[in-house]
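Recall the central idea of this unit: under ordinary conditions, the amino acid sequence of a chain determines the structure it adopts. In this exercise we apply that idea directly, starting from the sequence alone.
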Amino acid sequence: MDLLILGCKRKDRDSQRLLYQHYYSYALSICARYSRTMDEAKEAMNDGFMKVFLKIDQYHGDSPFKPWLRQVMIRASIDQYRKELKHQKHDPMESAHAAFTQPRGEANLSHEELIGLVQRLSPAYRAVFNLHVIDGYTHQEIGKMLRISAGTSKSNLLKARENLRSMLERLDKISYEKVN
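Accordingly, the structure predicted from this sequence is:
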């Protein structure tokens, strides 16, 4: 892996391609948590890899590469979130409503289905939920990243959890009605 990173620092296209292929699934899984669609996740991931290749000299090799890559992908996803906020006004309840209109057949959710529920949250709620619950950032850190107050971060997390709880209750109700 060290040789691959050295190749990327030399701007070697083959090394960049191999690094991209090696970490593709990992990077996409990070970006997907912050994105509404897989296309948005791929766009954020590709932006993240561009940043990796442009800033690879900032990685010194004194710590593992994967956490450094993770940070770059999270920041790329946050940048995507900011772009999305500029281009559209979003009703936070619209996402929760979308979950209610799609019936499900079973109560047990797979990992992908849970990610799908998180993706239905509004961009603001989804970003705070992922940063705090999944990635372990404090509300102060989230506030700095998203340019919001710590109080807004806490409020968005509470609302995200309430929306997810409502979505899960709705899915349980649909599953119960199908069984009976």
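The CA atoms of residues 8 and 53 lie 7 Å apart.
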